[in-house]
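Moderator note: this is an archived Q&A kept for reference. The question asked for a predicted structure of one protein chain; the sequence and the answer are reproduced below.
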Amino acid sequence: LKKAFQKTSFSKVVSVRSFSIGTPIFQKDSSKVQLRGTFLKGRKADLPTLVVLPEILEPVGNFLPFFKHPDNKILDVRNVWLLDYRNCGNSDHHPSLDLHDMSEDIIRFMNEKKVTMATIAGHGFGAKLATVTAINNLERFTGVLLLEGGPVDHRYHEPFLQLKNYIKVAYDLIKNNASSQKANKEIQNQIPHKKWRKVFQQNLIEGIGGIAFRANIEAIYKDSVKVFPDIASWHEKYGLWPGRVMACFALYSDWILMGSNTIPFYSIFPHLQYEFSRDLYPHGDDKSELSTYFHSLDHWIHEGTPEDVFYLSNRIYRWLRWQDGANVHLSDKSEAGWYYVPDRGFDPQRQGVGEYIPEHVHHDYLHTTAYDVFSHLTIYRRVAFRKILQGRTLVASKYSSQIGKNPIQFLSYLRIVEFLHQQFPDAFS
């Protein structure tokens, strides 16, 4: 394992020690599969969490240079978990690649780390898995972020057929107990795609009597040759995601064809309708320079030039800050608490006012103490506050406009109550 990390070509500024290293274990029981990853602490306290899932076979550590980029502001608004799903990276192995089973792994991981709600992001196959995980657990995710992937059936796409052949190359190397030298030579000769070649080399480790792969190549290969491989198919049974979503793909993507493959996004993500170029958009430009043209074909849009990384990360940052987690009836988070929303009981005679303001809860409501309003107060303060809210005294009528009528807001007005107690002690008797 140590040799494998030495062969892994991460950015020089990233330390291997930042990884949650663990030896993958083959589990027969799907419910015992443990996931491992890397935690990136946000730059502020009490931030929501972003869970990032990589492309199939790719070590999630390849995302580190993107998040460590000096112009990337995502860590200003999110803590980040770079997570290896089952059969990839340092996470446990299991014969099944069923997306429902894999989504349960992610939920167990969130429970272990005490993450109540999160934003889930994915690249390539990771985007499929992120979508299914969010659909299966609507109460656990505030938004879905997709990079070069999503609810598309890739079984007959040229890039998947190429990947399928690359997986067979790796499977044959294991089957033939190839030496490390032969394995590197075969990968170099039979995997022409530069990036995929690097991914397979990153997975290559020396085993007993031959080479081995950190990823579960056997399970991935057996899945890839099925009529409906889980790593490529999309089924109606997966359902739809009614919440916020941002989907980004390369301008000349081979995986998401702009002319036809954007249609399934509108069926699975109703919020994306009429949102093309805003929340569903191609990344890159159409300049005449050949270097720009060929770069825009890249599947790994988060590993582009510094300028590309800046634009992509900044757009994700703005979406996380203003769109993610906002009620779908609102334009963005700036409208939270200011607009009433019509519901089924809407009455036109009420001058266009709906029946409720969309509720926005704390991202970690199961573990936070933010809602324990009265737990820090003495008994006399609780009684005094209730008296003021109920309007039983002269003081209440004089200062009710300042104090408000929502007990949840009490911590903000505690100083006012204490001031009133000092100025009018008789009112609190």
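Archived answer notes: The two ends are 71 Å apart (CA to CA).
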